[in-house]
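Key result, reporting period 2: structure in, sequence out.
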């Protein structure tokens, strides 16, 4: 099973992932993205979030 992860040291809190895919990503109190559904959700939306992250800190493997 692929697991979605965020490198929080790299995340700049732009919010793109949470906007595109709110069932999987949220911004937390520190304005860093957090994965609320590590085992996925809509794959097309996860792919879009990965492609849209400006610092490339979302992975899924
Ligand atoms: S798209 Fe990337 S940089 Fe932006 S909030 Fe999500 S993980 Fe952080």
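The corresponding designed sequence is given below.
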């Amino acid at each position: 099973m692929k697991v979605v992860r965020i490198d929080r040291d790299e995340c700049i809190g732009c919010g793109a992932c949470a906007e595109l895919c709110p069932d999987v990503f949220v911004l937390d109190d520190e304005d860093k993205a957090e994965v609320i559904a590590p085992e996925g959700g809509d794959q097309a939306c996860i792919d879009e979030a990965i492609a849209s992250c400006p610092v490339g800190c979302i992975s899924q493997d």
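The helical segments are 16-20, 43-52. The chain is about 25% helix and 20% strand. This case is discussed further under Risks and Mitigation.
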